[in-house]
Amino acid sequence: xxxxxxxxPEQLQELRxxxxxxxxxxxxxxxxxxxxxxxxxxxxxxxxxVEHLAGVVPSGDYALAVHLWRQPGATSNLLLLHGYFDHxxxxxxxxxxxxxxxxxxxxxxxxxxxxxxxxxxxxDDFSDYSQAIVxxxxxxxxxxxxxxxxGQSTGCAALVDYAGKQPWPFAAxxxxxxxxxxxxxxxxxxxxxxxRHFVHGVPRNFVKNSSDLAFxxxxxxxxxxxxxxxxxxxxxxxxxxxxxxxxxLGVGPALVVQGDADNTVAWRYNIGVICKLFPDSQVEYLPxxxxxxxxxxxxFRALYLGHVEKYLASRGIPLETRSGIEAG
Length: 328
What we know:
Layout: H1 9-17, H2 30-38, H3 43-46, E1 51-59, E2 62-70, E3 76-81, H4 92-100, E4 103-108, H5 127-139, E5 147-152, H6 154-163, E6 172-176, H7 185-195, E7 201-203, H8 213-220, E8 228-230, H9 231-243, E9 255-259, H10 267-277, E10 282-286, H11 298-314
Parallel strand pairs: 3-4, 3-5, 5-6, 6-9, 9-10
Antiparallel strand pairs: 1-2, 2-4, 7-8
């Protein structure tokens, strides 16, 4: 699948510390080019007219690793928001899809993820996630074409928090397996209440959250994966949910995609909440699909991306097919 040329934790730490400030025209260093090859996101090397800009954007106490792939004649800008434990390197399929559909693609690692700073998978408050969106959009100059957003799981939660606080810049919104509550939320809250005074985290269980077995195997050996679930993240989720008002966010409807074999989030409950936050949303259920929709099997991706294209057309953002790039 990926992983050509192993990366050590030491190399990744060195890369993290040496990322330059994000600025228009800053191309990836040789270290970052090696990173992109490892995760098969070296699209600029494969397509001469695709340009890759990368660097750091400050956001509160964090330094966020930001990537922008842009191309001449792009008809829209796509912001991708990854999920918990994910990072830019794992979103190559959707980056590639966006490029193949003539989008400029912007993505960044959430605090505590990937090449961004912060303790692994740790967050003190979910507002840090939404503030990250604010700061990245302010720092990156995007061409004057429609901007749309696609989030996965925790990325969707970050988007909900953003929507409650900021003017909405997105012409269309796609939510993949949105996080509101995880599965077994009552037991999770009880465990958090009992354990938080004694331990900082619990071992992470790598679950079967995709039908793509090659992806699951890669993630198990991904050097950027956290092997523990910090209890402070659960605490931050509890506080966010306690303050979440289940009413119209005033940003219009979304396309919501949900697999019915998702054992990560409490999707039956979550979809009801999402439809209150984004009234008149279009909900598409994928029988047999698991949680990690950004990295589900090719058949599942083709199915929901077909829904994405029809939805975008209805929002006045028709996607064009670009020759020479696979469509995710």
